């Protein structure tokens, strides 16, 4: 049986043609205005710094890309054949589905639960769906879905109303309810968001991997985006999923992942109902020397990931199974503000968890996974080296250097876009500027959040957490964060100034001239 790949929301042809013409015009201008002496010996120190960092960063990225190809072309086909063979004969003893919804539009909820009920019915395993909902209208929608599907015999629905204090408490309540069902070692749990639509065959083609690998603790799948918004928004989401596909595939070579996405993940139910697992989901927190002890607001997928990682369980990415998310920016009319708000929350979750994972050392996860976590911390600074050097040289040495840097951006991001397009199966010219925006904007946000990662906000539920109750303590924390951040950025700029020789100290002749002009005292 063949399974079609759902089509993501993509930019229009008019937008692609316009982007091509603008890019072509920019390339012509850059080549025409590029000074002939840009590669003179005087420029070698600038190119050495940018080139050295670029070689380091892109060599690591290409290692990830090669591992991704190896996983998708060599390793995964064998795993798929084994999973399909055993999946045709076996089913889990029970399947529990945790679906959390908070103020989701009724038409989206209907599409989500209709697909879920159809999947569970066709899969055939005894299934209990725990609908963690926020409004009575959700019950009416789900009941309508069950009526529409003739109330399948193998499916039971249980409703649990959220308290409105975040997703974590709702998940913990459901996990405790699942634990009271006494799941066996052959029972599975699916955790998914209320705006994710399962495509046909999702359960059958993903859950079978647990049947043939007793050491597999959790898995996640590929994603598509059904986007409400403009062309830039559509391509921004699909680019993120293309980058996610590459990294997830690469990490699966080591039988580990860097996150278990909350959109759709599956776990062994006996692991997900361990008291320590539930406690970490509900009350995950960190003790920090400057922020004290504070509780995590979002990032439950990072908590579940860390629990499994610490205990050495395998994790796997299933690249040929897609789930489709109904995506929309918090404010459709403000692309940059909305994407920055989303990235700030995502990167905050990453930084709050990756530090303690790094402290575990390579033993429970392997050296490649451990170094990937370390690299996440390093890359937010190394990414800023290129634009910082380009800005310094343009301002203080040679204004025309900016043309060479823009050519470098077009070349390197163009190559990266081609690699991503090869693996994603589609190409968009909008990815070239969006990659650069994600890299530089993301690096700036990561460095900003790393000094303030206690500050948390969830836009959909309108709640925030992490800072002290005392306003004076809040101001002290924020001022200290600004100060440390400023010191680190200043230190980086100072090192780059010295390394590139942008502002060399004056020689004796220059000092004599300054004295003759009366600028310096005799």
From TrEMBL:
Subcellular location: Cell membrane
Cell membrane is among the record's keywords: yes
Signal sequence region: none
Assigned keywords, A-Z: Cell membrane, Glycosyltransferase, Membrane, Transferase, Transmembrane, Transmembrane helix
Domain of life: Bacteria
InterPro entries per UniProt: Nucleotide-diphossugar_trans (IPR029044)
Record Pfam families: Glyco_tranf_2_3
Residue stretches spanning the membrane: 17-34, 46-63, 428-449, 483-504
Annotated protein name in UniProt: Mannuronan synthase
Lineage: Bacteria, Pseudomonadati, Pseudomonadota, Gammaproteobacteria, Oceanospirillales
């Amino acid at each position: 049986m063949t399974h079609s790949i759902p089509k993501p929301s993509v930019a229009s042809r008019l937008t692609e043609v316009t982007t091509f013409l603008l890019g072509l015009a920019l390339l012509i201008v850059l080549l025409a205005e590029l000074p002939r002496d840009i590669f003179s010996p005087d420029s070698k120190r600038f190119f050495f710094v940018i080139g050295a960092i670029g070689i380091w960063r892109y060599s690591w990225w290409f290692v990830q890309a090669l591992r991704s190809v190896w996983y998708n072309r060599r390793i995964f086909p064998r795993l798929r054949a084994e999973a399909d063979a055993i999946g045709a004969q076996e089913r889990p003893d029970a399947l529990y589905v945790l679906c959390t919804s908070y103020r989701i539009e009724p038409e989206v909820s209907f599409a989500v639960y209709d697909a879920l009920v159809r999947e569970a019915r066709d899969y055939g395993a005894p299934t209990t769906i725990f609908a963690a909902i926020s409004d009575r209208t959700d019950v009416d929608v789900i009941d309508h879905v069950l009526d529409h599907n003739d109330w399948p015999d193998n499916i039971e629905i249980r409703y649990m109303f959220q308290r409105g204090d975040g997703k974590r408490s709702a998940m913990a309540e459901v996990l405790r309810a699942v634990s009271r069902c006494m799941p066996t070692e052959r029972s599975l749990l699916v955790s998914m968001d209320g705006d994710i639509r399962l495509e046909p065959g999702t359960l059958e083609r993903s859950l079978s991997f647990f049947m043939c690998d007793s050491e597999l603790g959790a898995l996640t799948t590929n994603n598509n985006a059904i986007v409400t918004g403009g062309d830039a928004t559509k391509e921004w989401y699909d680019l993120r999923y293309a980058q996610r596909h590459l990294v997830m595939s690469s990490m699966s070579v080591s039988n580990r992942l860097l996150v278990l996405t909350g959109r759709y993940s599956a776990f062994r139910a006996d692991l997900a109902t361990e008291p320590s697992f539930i406690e970490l989901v509900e009350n995950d927190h960190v003790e920090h020397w400057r922020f004290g002890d504070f509780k995590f607001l979002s990032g439950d997928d990072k908590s579940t990931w860390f629990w499994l990682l610490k205990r050495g369980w395998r994790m796997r990415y299933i690249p040929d199974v897609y789930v489709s998310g109904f995506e929309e920016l918090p404010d459709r009319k403000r692309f940059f503000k909305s994407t920055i708000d989303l990235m700030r929350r995502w990167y905050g979750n990453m930084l709050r968890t990756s530090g303690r994972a790094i402290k575990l050392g390579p033993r429970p996860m392997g050296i490649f996974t451990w170094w990937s976590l370390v690299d996440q911390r390093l890359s937010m600074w190394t990414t800023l080296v290129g634009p910082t050097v380009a800005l310094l040289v343009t301002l203080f040495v040679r204004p025309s250097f900016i043309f060479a840097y823009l050519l470098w951006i077009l070349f390197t991001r163009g190559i990266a876009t081609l690699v991503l397009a090869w693996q994603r199966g589609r190409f968009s010219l909008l990815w070239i500027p969006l990659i650069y925006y994600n890299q530089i904007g993301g690096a700036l946000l990561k460095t900003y959040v790393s000094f303030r990662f206690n500050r948390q906000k969830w836009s959909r539920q309108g709640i925030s957490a992490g800072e002290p109750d005392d306003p004076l303590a809040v101001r002290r924390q924020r001022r200290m964060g600004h100060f440390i951040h400023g010191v680190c950025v200043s230190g980086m700029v100072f090192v780059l100034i010295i390394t590139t020789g942008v502002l060399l100290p004056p020689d004796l002749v220059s000092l004599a001239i300054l004295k003759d002009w009366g600028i310096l005292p005799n």
